[in-house]
Design goal:
By secondary structure, this protein is mainly beta. It contains three helices and 40 strands. The chain has a 16-stranded mixed beta sheet that branches.
């Protein structure tokens, strides 16, 4: 009888438990960058706006409008920050069932804290976070913490258009970037902000070019919004031109922001341009676009293994989309930084397989190009089958070579064709293109332990077009990945990556198999092979061969 009563009690309790608010692990992030906890810039600054993601943590309906002074509760939702016996109330700005945005109080305790959400009488599980004095996130127009930044070009007090490929800034122009996380203020966080620069060291790089101290004109609270910061600066004369010029900040000498981008063109130009990127200009225009990419990735694993061993994976992707990019078009595959610069992406998952990074800011619909795309080359033919993956709707693993296994590689240097009889929305096509050998990595043996506080020089030979370097590290315990995607003129033969970029990557774990860091090099041809088909405004195909190795970051 007692067992039956216990079981009945548990069954009756299940509906109540199902309604409890819940915050999953690693769900407290900067509201501008969304950088994952566990990364160097994944902490929450005093006075900044932070986001909490979860389930049933707020009301199902819209968040109420705000008026000053802001309250400690919003629609029955409160957020408490605790450290031992010390507790402070965060200031909720937006509350919804799956997300809360709130201001971390300027007097919040520094260090590890526990964040407690109450939705009415229901309390969510405590969520961990780390509070620091300063850690800036720059808002992006994509809302993803990557891609085009929330920046305004200053023309006059009344004319300040949003920076975008169609409204680029020029060298020497004053611009305003919007972010959160410069640090605490000396007035109440819940009252209307008092303009004024904050006492924090701010360094800015535009495409690797440092903004002179005298050209950092303002770094402080915006007069409009609690927790929101403005950073006003002059674009350096040495800044590169392009549509996706990386922008990053560093505060207090050691905390680097997320990487966003801005469009820069010659003064008087009506739009930016990326001459080194064979995909970029076409991607930013509305219309139907088809892309076919074959990739061969060969990685020497020499960390946490008894002896070096090389693994090679071949894959093919094809995407056919009705692109509607809008003013702030962005896709990590197409939106490459200009030569000599690096964009840093953060996410989760293994860099060498299964990584999850921020996606496209476009919302183009996938197009039916047939049941499969047939790829033929030196080792016969294989098909890319419909996969409905975003951003590719055709995919196939084409081959592999594993240590101790049977070599089944498909992609070798040589000539390839991709064909399809067509589908209901895209007609048949036939395109030929070539795969070149990967670049010869000249100083490969010298790159084994990478210091994140020193410059990293990569040297190569035998490459044409644009060289792409991917330098990243995945902290397995934290499920946190940061990777720098850098480009260079392949003819230059070398690329130097600065500490301002490398310091955004996590250090390698001291535990065996606790992390996986890698450096990868491949080349993008100067011009992708173009193809046409009914239903497509443009089509491009390319084959990329990459060589890399695992490394340790310290």
């Amino acid at each position: 009888m007692r067992i039956r009563i216990i079981l009945l009690t548990l069954v009756l309790a299940l509906p109540a438990l199902a309604q409890q608010p819940r915050v999953p692990p690693r769900a407290v992030v900067n509201s501008a960058s969304f950088t994952r906890p566990g990364l160097p810039n994944g902490k929450i600054a005093r006075g900044s706006i932070f986001s909490i993601f979860g389930s049933r943590i707020g009301p199902d309906g819209p968040s109420p409008d705000l008026t000053f002074p802001l309250g400690k509760a919003l629609a029955g939702v409160t957020v408490t920050v605790r450290q031992g016996d010390v507790s402070v109330d965060a200031i909720p700005l937006f509350v919804f069932a799956g997300q809360i945005n709130a201001i971390m109080p300027s007097d919040a305790p520094l260090g590890r804290v526990s964040i407690e959400v109450r939705n009415g009488v229901r309390r969510a599980n405590p969520a961990p976070a780390e509070v620091v004095a300063s850690s800036v996130g720059i808002f992006s127009a994509t809302g993803l913490g990557v891609g085009p930044a929330s920046i305004q070009n200053f023309i006059s007090q009344t004319v300040q258009p949003d920076n975008a490929p169609g409204t680029p800034a020029f060298r020497g122009q004053i611009v305003t970037a919007w972010g959160t996380g410069l640090g605490a203020v000396d007035f109440p966080d819940n009252e209307a902000p008092v303009p004024g620069g904050l006492d924090v060291e701010v360094e800015i790089w535009v495409g690797g070019a440092a903004v002179a101290d005298e050209d950092v004109l303002y770094a402080g609270r915006s007069p409009c919004c609690s927790g929101v910061d403005q950073i006003i600066f002059r674009v350096p004369d040495a800044a590169p031109l392009g549509c996706y010029v990386p922008l990053r900040l560093r505060t207090a000498g050691n905390v680097v922001s997320n990487t966003v981008s801005m469009a820069i063109a010659e003064e008087g130009a009506s739009e930016c341009s990326d001459p080194a990127n064979p995909f970029g200009d076409r991607f930013r225009r509305p219309g139907t676009l088809g892309t076919i990419l074959l990739t061969s990735l060969s990685v020497e694993r020499n960390v946490d293994v008894p002896e070096p061993a090389t693994t090679t994976l071949d894959a093919g992707f094809a995407s056919f989309r009705d692109e509607n990019p809008g003013a702030f078009a962005f896709n990590p595959v197409y939106s490459l930084p200009p030569p000599g610069t690096c964009a840093v992406y953060t996410g989760s998952g293994d860099l060498l397989g299964g990584a999850s990074l921020p996606g496209s800011a476009t919302a183009g619909a996938l197009l039916d190009a047939g049941a499969a795309v047939r790829v033929s080359g030196p080792r016969g033919a294989k098909s890319l089958a419909e996969a409905m993956l975003n951003p590719a709707n055709y995919f196939a693993g084409l081959g592999s070579a594993m240590p101790g296994g049977v070599e089944r590689l498909f992609l070798l240097p040589g000539d390839y064709t991709a064909t399809s009889p067509g589908g209901s929305e895209v007609g048949g096509f036939n395109v030929s293109f070539a795969m070149r050998p990967p670049p010869t990595w000249s100083n490969r043996d010298e790159v084994g332990v990478v210091s994140r506080t020193d410059e990293l020089e990569l040297r190569w030979s035998g490459a044409e077009g644009t060289l792409i370097a991917l330098v990243g590290n995945y902290d397995i315990g934290e499920d946190a990945l940061a990777a720098a995607l850098c480009t260079a003129d392949a003819a230059a033969g070398s690329l130097t990556i600065s500490p301002a970029v490398l310091s955004a990557l996590p250090a390698s774990s001291s535990k065996t198999f606790g992390s996986e860091g890698a450096v990868l090099l491949w080349t993008l041809p100067a011009a992708a092979a173009a193809f046409s088909a009914d239903g497509l405004d443009a089509g491009f195909a390319a084959a990329l061969s990459a060589a890399g190795k695992t490394v340790v970051f310290e």
